[in-house]
Amino acid sequence: MSIVVINNLGQYNHRISRTLTYLGIENKLVPNTISLEELENMNPKGIILGGGPSIERIGNCKEFITKMNIPILGICLGHQAIADVFGGKIKSAEIESYAQIDINIIKECGLFEGIDDSLKVWASHKDEVVTLPEEFEIVATSDKCDIEAMKHIAKPIYGIQFHPEVQHTPRGGEIFENFNKICDRELDL
Predict the structure, then answer these.
(1) What's the CATH code, domain 3-188?
(2) Interior CA angle at 143 toward 140 and 149, to 5°?
(3) Is 163 an active-site residue?
(4) pTM for this one?
(5) Which of 23, 67, 94, 107 has the CB geometry, 3.0–4.6 Å to 139, for a possible disulfide?
């Protein structure tokens, strides 16, 4: 079983797939226009929703989020799509971020297992989640963005505003490995 990476037309989507491959994590990169039926037939153990230009161009991601009962990790636009589906609010950031920043991990969760309380990450976005969805909790924040990472309270659904797939996030591989472990744990349940 593999993790399916949904390409939301962002500049880093291919890097997500390549990083997973380097880590030995089986994956497949597919367009966000793939149908729910085609995605279900792939029998993925998890989904990563990649970044992209705008919430209007997320293809079938909303259907994947609401209908697939497997772990989901949203990155940048994928994070925003998850927030939107669950009733959060997104708006243009007061300060667009295109730089390496420090985030503070404020709540232990599987995604950041074994990682310190602060982490250098690459931010590349103009929109951000400004209102947390009701069923979510904030797990990381920064002085640039209040909701750098969030987690569904009951389901294995995670959203991160930053990009773990680029070298400017030195420990990004560990985040992907942790997500893979989350997927494997869910298979065992």
Answers:
(1) 3.40.50.880
(2) 20
(3) yes
(4) 0.96
(5) 107
